[in-house]
Every structure is written in structure tokens, then in C-alpha cells.
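User: New here, any thoughts?
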Amino acid sequence: MSLRRLLLWFSPFLLAVALALLTLVPALAAVPHEKAEPAYAEEQTILQSEQGLPEPGRGDAASGRRHFDRHFIKPPGLMPEQDVILQRGGNTWRVWRNGPLATLAGTVLLLVPLGIFGLYRVFGPQKIEGAETGRDIQRFTRLDRWTHWATAITFIVLALTGLVVLFGKQLLLPWMGHALFSWLAIISKYVHNVAGPLFILCTLAMFFTYVRRNRFERADWQWLKAGGGLVSHAHVPAPYFNLGEKVWFWFGVTLMGLLMGITGLMLNFPYFAGDTPGPGFTRYLLQVANMLHLLGAAFYIAFAMGHIYLGTLGSPGAYRGMRHGTVDEAWVRTHHELWWRQIVARERGTGGRR
């Protein structure tokens, strides 16, 4: 394989890495005074007393040593800020997390399934053209399916437990009561923390299992111009994976998986930067990671809803391929005609159909 083709294959992945890293750049600075929202009068007094002082960044030698301006977290025994009870901008994070960000996440997670339901009711599913032939064609191998379902199961576990952590106090606590909800919340927290690293491993396996079949091709442009036939139900020839599936792979599984993996590990292992004296993760960095994790999760779940719909009700016969590994030839000819032509040409070259 030439270097040019290799770079072409991995260019979306490299772009995803670059975008994920760029989102963390603003977190390297301390929280500015003017952007901090005080929670108590004492914090307001502290912020006023620090007006005009320089803003120490993450790499500043003074950072973590000024009064009430210590952002570095250390393991027990190496925590010079254990007596710090207020952190500039701490309440800013709380206000944004429980206010605009939670509202945006909830809105997205309500509107997307409503939109999918409307799409199904108005335009209906993408039906197979003609009758089924009764001839099965292998769509996915056992490794393909195991990798997919391992990733899907851990994703669902993380989604459900994450929703409990984010919205539980507002939606569940009032009718469950404090005793029952406290158990649900603590179980959700620990299950989320354990499932997170497993999901990262599954996502890596998913990437390397499916990356070869998700290269962008010239035919994808025709699929895009026709909107995939979602609304018009027009026949659009597509390769093994159509453009919609490739977008899900590169910007859902890869980009969002990368963002969720990086921020999740930071939040799961705040002391991962080391247990020796010196800089570690700042509180501000972890707060930014938490907000990115929240937003990323909301859009990842919304994106997954569309993927689930198109893999089940939206395209009858598609679920069978991921469940049993095979699909009917008529389904292949309808939804992936270019791949079907390759199968026919290969069979003709080897002496006919099996």
C-alpha cells in the first residue's frame, strides 16, 4: 500500500484527533476573574481581593501557591491545597453544568427521537425493492458482530447511567425518595466508571475492525446528493457501507469516541498525571473536561438514536445482518448495489453462484 493511500484512509481519524486536542487548549489557563460566578458572599470577597492579580496558567510556577488560587489536585499526602475550600470559577462550572448545558442536552435528547418518529410516520421505512430471493449473503463475520455488540452494550450502559447522574436529581429523586435514589445514583456512578474504560477498548476494536470498509469513495457523493433516498425512497447505488454509515463511523464512533474517551479518562483518573510533587490535572481542566463530556455524550447518544433507527425500523432487513450475519440478496441489491455488483462479478469469475 502506498503512503498516499494510507494517509487518505487515515486522514479522517487524524482530523478527529486534532479536533479533540484543540478542544482542550483553552483549559490550560486558570479561570479568569471576570468569568467566575461566586456561589457565596465569601467567594465574592475573595474574588474582589484578587482583582488585578495576574492569572497564573497551568505551567506557571506561581500557580497552586497563591492564596485561594490553587488549582492542582494531588493524591492523599501530596495535596498542599487540602485546606482550600473555594476555587475561583468552581461555581461557574456548577452553574453551567446544571443550567444551560443540562438544558441543551435534555432538549437534544427529546427532539431527536421526536424527529425520528416523525420521519418514520411521514416517509416510512426504506423497503426492499421486489420480493426476497431467499438467497443469503454474508454481511458481517462473527468477529464483526461480537465487536459491534460489545461496543453497543457498553455504550447503552454508559448512556443510561450517565443520564441518571445528570438528570436523576431533577427527574427521579422527587418520586423515588432519597433512600432509593441514593442507591441508584451510587450504583450508576460506579458502573459508569467501570464501563467507561471497557467502552474505550471496545471502540478501539471497533475502529480497527471496520476502518478498511469505511473509506470515502466517489459514489458517496451521489448518495449525498440524493439524501440517501431517506425521504424520496429513490434507489441510490452504494458500496459496502453508504455515506451515512461512514459518517457515523468517522464522526460518531471515532471522533465522539475519542472525545468521550479522553475526557472520561481524565475524570475517572484525576490523579493519573502522577503521584510525585509537581503539576497535575487542574481543577479547571477537569471542569472543562466534564462540560465537554456532558455535551459530547448528549450528541453521541442522539447520533446513536439515528443509527439504531436506520439499522432496525428504518431499513427492514438490516438488523438481521448484525444479528445473524446474513442478509437477503434483494436487500443487498436495494441498499448496496455497488457491493452487490462486486459479489456477482466475483462469483462469475469463480464459476457461478454458490
Remarks:
- The longest strand covers residues 136-138.
- Residues 90-123 form the longest helix (34 residues).
